[in-house]
């Protein structure tokens, strides 16, 4: 089961004291795919992203990335292996330029100063520009990140993940706070990325929009997978409709 997948999180249980946030959830992300993780508030979506990125360790279950068991590996090791995470509120350095955000997002903040200096070498700057071109922010390279719009900040976070050569990008509600036009553009961009060698696992509430672009959807409910499959099909499942109404 699930052979050939980039990531498999199987039978994940995560408890917070007496509360069971995840209760045996299993999801898989194939190579080159855009997978949507949906579910009502409190169903365990963010907790599952945190278990996959290593912020939490599960009480039961396994996380397998490229065939390797990473259930108990530290977040920075997972980042080195190719797992990137973006957050609901973009975590960028607002006073730094767009270009420096891409470069220094790649070089860890606790890296020694001379290493950080080396990061400015030509090759890295060149690559940062290529990545910025990909997210269409190259014309803004010397502006402080504070001048970017909400949608552009999300693209900047994606740029940092691309700069780090990530294979799997975990995103928490990228569509939040964007107008419908921008949300469509962002999801289209994410779909394009998934056709260029990156896989995405995305927690999203704007399902009316995201469903058009995702390859596969999981719906969590009370910490378990209630339904999975092609997005349009999943969203017309009566159990799913009921879960979202409760
Ligand atoms: N660090 C924590 N300590 C205690 N309880 C937590 C913690 N993190 C999450 N929970 C609880 O676990 C459950 C699942 O939360 P989680 O944030 O994963 O849900 P979610 O599906 O992402 O919800 P939302 O859509 O509202 O973001 C909730 O009941 C939440 O209160």
TrEMBL record:
Keyword hit for ATP-binding: yes
Any single GO CC term annotated in Swiss-Prot or TrEMBL for this entry: plasma membrane
Entry's Gene Ontology molecular function annotations: ATP binding; ATP hydrolysis activity
Record SMART domains: AAA
CDD domains (alphabetical): ABC_Mj1267_LivG_branched (cd03219)
Limits of the ABC transporter domain: 7-245
Pfam families documented for this protein: ABC_tran (PF00005), BCA_ABC_TP_C (PF12399)
PANTHER family: BRANCHED-CHAIN AMINO ACID TRANSPORT ATP-BINDING PROTEIN LIVG-RELATED, CONSERVED COMPONENT OF ABC TRANSPORTER FOR NATURAL AMINO ACIDS-RELATED
Keywords: ATP-binding, Nucleotide-binding, Transport
UniProt superkingdom: Archaea
Protein's UniProt name: Amino acid/amide ABC transporter ATP-binding protein 1, HAAT family
InterPro entries named in the record: AAA+_ATPase, ABC_AA/LPS_Transport, ABC_transporter-like_ATP-bd, ABC_transporter-like_CS, BCA_ABC_TP_C, P-loop_NTPase
């Amino acid at each position: 089961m699930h052979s050939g997948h980039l990531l498999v999180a199987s039978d994940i249980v995560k408890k917070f004291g007496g509360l069971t946030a995840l209760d045996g959830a299993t999801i898989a992300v194939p190579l080159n795919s855009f997978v949507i993780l949906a579910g009502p508030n409190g169903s365990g979506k963010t907790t599952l992203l945190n278990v996959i990125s290593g912020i939490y360790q599960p009480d039961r279950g396994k996380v397998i990335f490229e065939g390797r068991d990473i259930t108990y590996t530290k977040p920075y090791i997972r980042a080195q292996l190719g797992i990137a995470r973006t957050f609901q509120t973009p975590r960028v350095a607002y006073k730094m330029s767009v270009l420096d955000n891409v470069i220094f997002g790649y070089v860890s903040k606790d890296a020694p100063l001379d290493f950080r200096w080396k990061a400015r070498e030509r090759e890295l700057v060149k690559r940062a520009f290529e990545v910025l071109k990909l997210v269409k922010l190259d014309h803004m390279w010397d502006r402080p990140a504070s001048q970017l719009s909400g949608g552009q900040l999300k693209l900047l976070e994606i740029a940092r993940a691309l700069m780090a050569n990530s294979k799997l990008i975990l995103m928490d509600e990228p569509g939040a706070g964007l107008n419908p036009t921008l949300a469509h553009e962002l999801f289209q961009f994410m779909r394009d990325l998934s056709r260029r060698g990156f896989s995405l696992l995305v927690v999203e509430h704007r399902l009316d929009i995201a469903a058009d672009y995702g390859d596969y959807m999981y719906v969590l409910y009370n910490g378990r997978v209630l339904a999975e499959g092609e997005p349009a099909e999943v969203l017309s499942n009566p159990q799913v409709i009921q879960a979202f109404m409760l």
